[in-house]
Amino acid sequence: MSKVRNHAEDRLRTHLMKRHKVKDRGSGLRRFPSADLYGRYGLYKVPAVAGWCSAHASA
């Protein structure tokens, strides 16, 4: 699931960089940190572990 989360962060950050005309990737990472993507821009936090993986762990 972390691949999905990383991809979503990357796509949103790329969109924001184009929208705000930020050309340098390093500047984009500093200007749009992960905490802002989730807090300010409302990106959904995908769970790190799928729910079905631990559903029957005690059995």
Describe the protein's topology.
Layout: H1 2-19, H2 25-31, H3 34-39
Detailed description of the structure:
- There is one protein chain.
- The chain has a domain at about 1-40.
- The protein starts with a helix and ends in a 20-residue tail after the last helix.
- The longest helix has 18 residues, at about 1-20.
- The protein has helices spanning about 1-20, 25-30, 35-40.
- The protein is built from three helices and no strands.
- It has about 60 residues and is mostly helical.
Helix content: 40-55%
Assembly classification = single chain
Low-confidence stretches: none
Beta-strand residue percentage: under 5%
Based on CA atoms alone, the radius of gyration comes out at 15 Å
> What series of H and E elements makes up the topology?
HHH
Main sheet attributes: strand count, strand direction, barrel closure: none
Number of helices: 3
Bulk shape:
elongated
How many angstroms does the end-to-end distance come to?
Answer: 24 Å
Per DSSP E runs of 2 or more residues, the count of β-strands stands at 0
Task: Quickly describe the structure.
By secondary structure, the protein is mainly α. It has helices spanning 2-19, 25-31, 34-39.
List keywords for this structure.
mainly alpha, 0% strand, 53% helix, 59 residues
